[in-house]
C-alpha cells in the first residue's frame, strides 16, 4: 500500500468529498447510532482515526461533550476542514495511524470508512487496546469499514481492489483484545447516469488511490462500454436511506442507468481489561 499516493488522492478530493461521499456520510451517522445504542454517549478522552472533513466528528459532537478529543488524519490538509471543531479541548494531528503515537487512557477510539486502507489490522487493534483505559469495564472501539463486495464493479472490470475482509475475519482479529458488542453489514447501490459519472464520483471522494496507470482513450472507452453492458441499474424503484441510517440492500436511486456497490461493515467493541496487549 502506497500511503503517500493515498494521501495525495484524498487531499485532492477534500474540496469535493462532502458533496459526493453520500455512503460514507450515512456510515458515520449509523456508526454513532450503534455506539449510542450500547450506552456510548459519555466519554472523557476520545480519539478519531481518519477524521477527513469531519463527517463522524460532527455527528459525535452534536451529542457528546468529551473532556479531550483528538482528531487524526493521514492528510495534514484536513485540519482546515475541521478547524471549526477545534478548541482548547479538541485538537488535530496528522500522520499514519498505524505508525503515530496515540494518547494513553482513552475512553473511545472511533473511525469511519478508513481501516480498509490499513496494512496490519491485527497490530492496529493491539495498539488500540493498549491505548484504551478501563472506563466502565473497558474503553470502547467503534469503527466502520468495507467488505468484500465493495466496489465490486471496478474489481470485475479492472482487476484492482483493496484486500477487503469479511466481518468474520475482522471478528477473529478483534476477539483476543475486545468483546464484540455489535456487528452489522449491508450493501448499498448507488446509481449513476453513466460509467463516466462513476469515475467522477470515485475521484471526487478520493477512492482512486490504488492504481497509478493513466486512463488512455482506448482504455476509457472499453471500460465505459463494458460497465454499461454488465452493470445496469436496477429496474425496480429503490428504497432511500433516511435519517442517516443504512438499511439492508438499499439502492439510492434517481432513475439512472448504471450501479456502483458499497459494502459497509460496522463494529462496536469493548476492551477486555484483564490482559496487557503488547505491539509486535
Describe the structure.
With 280 residues, the chain is an alpha/beta fold. The chain has 2 domains: 3-187 and 262-271, 3-Layer(aba) Sandwich (Rossmann fold), CATH 3.40.50; 190-261, no CATH class. Helices cover 33% and strands 20% of the residues. The chain has 8 helices and 10 strands. Mean pLDDT is 87; it is low at 236-245 and 248-256. It catalyses: malonyl-[ACP] + S-adenosyl-L-methionine = malonyl-[ACP] methyl ester + S-adenosyl-L-homocysteine.
Write the layout of secondary structure elements.
Blueprint: H1 3-20, H2 22-37, E1 45-49, H3 55-63, E2 68-73, E3 90-94, E4 108-112, H4 121-131, E5 140-146, H5 152-158, H6 167-174, E6 178-185, E7 188-192, H7 195-204, H8 217-230, E8 250-252, E9 258-262, E10 264-271
Parallel strand pairs: 1-2, 1-4, 2-3, 4-5, 7-8
Antiparallel strand pairs: 5-10, 6-10, 7-9
Helix pairs in contact: 2-3
Task: Offer a quick outline of the entry.
With 280 residues, this protein is α/β, with parallel strands linked by helices. The protein contains 8 helices and 10 strands. Converts the free carboxyl group of a malonyl-thioester to its methyl ester by transfer of a methyl group from S-adenosyl-L-methionine (SAM). It allows to synthesize pimeloyl-ACP via the fatty acid synthetic pathway.
CATH superfamily of the largest domain: Vaccinia Virus protein VP39
- Give the domain tally: 2
Supply the number of helical segments.
Answer: 8
Beta-strand portion reads 15-25%
| Helix amount | 25-40%
Shape: globular
- The CATH architecture of the largest domain comes to 3-Layer(aba) Sandwich
Q: How do the helices and strands follow one another from N- to C-terminus?
A: HHEHEEEHEHHEEHHEEE
| Biggest sheet record | 7 strands, mixed
Radius of gyration using CA atoms only:
19 Å
